[in-house]
Amino acid sequence: MDIKQLINFITIVEEGNITKAAQKLHMSQPPLSNQLKALEEELGVKLVERGSRKIKLTDVGNLLYKRGKDIVNVFESTLNEVEDFKSGIEGILKIGAVSTCNQFIPDELISPYAEQYPKMRFELYEGNTYEVIDMIERGMVDIGVVRTPFNGQNLCCMNLRTEPMVAVINKNSDKFGFGLKQKISLQELDNKQITIYRRYEKLIMEVLQNNNIKSNIYCLNDDSRTTIAWAQAGLAIGIVPKSIINNLNSNVEIYEIEEDELKTDICVVWMENKYLSKGARHLLDMISRKQF
């Protein structure tokens, strides 16, 4: 059994049938079917159950699939490490990022890194936190910059910054005005209309309820920019992480909410037990030493 046979077997399993696997591998179906049969004969075991449109693994087939994934990952990591060794610290660093961190990444994360490694180039892929994590799991990006809360299973994570939530209101709105100050208490949101990004609904509502605050969700939406737009229109108080409001226009007022539980973390994440390029490893090393 060689590494190519193992990769082909894994592809068959993950695609669900030989036809789709052959298409992904850019080969015809009969040779791939013959390869699978030859692999079973070589190992002296039955790897898949025949007669089903979708591949069904035997117990030993499932074992080979799981162990084979580890072997292929080690093989590919070794090849990548050899390439890194030949090229030095240069190449392309692929980063997935939530759009609300678009100012933080170049200003605070990449600028000091680029000074040390001027030959590095960057590809940035933007999406929400769940989309970025999916990019990491699929191998589209090396690392991701995301916001809590998220499911960190199979991910390594380093906190970059913890920041408070802020209340955003229209400057000319009489019904939501909090006066001349920079911070407000949670109690000042009592009986107010709020608009929030759906990702923060559980966090915000639990904190409000635990403190007996009866704010009403006027608009629940799928983007912090929508939250801000509704607040700018004077329809409700927008509640968003502080750094999101860096580029807001002058017709809004911003108030930091004084509540320890109402905070969010900006984190850098990457896949556990998976190869990272030398460029990505050096960025993570800088982060761990707080050199950013």
UniProtKB/TrEMBL annotation:
The keyword Repressor does not apply. InterPro entries: HTH-type_LysR_regulators (IPR050950), LysR_HTH_N (IPR000847), LysR_subst-bd (IPR005119). The keyword Transmembrane helix does not apply. Residues 1-58 form the HTH lysR-type domain. Keywords: DNA-binding, Transcription, Transcription regulation. This is LysR family transcriptional regulator. The lineage of its organism: Bacteria, Bacillati, Bacillota, Clostridia, Peptostreptococcales.
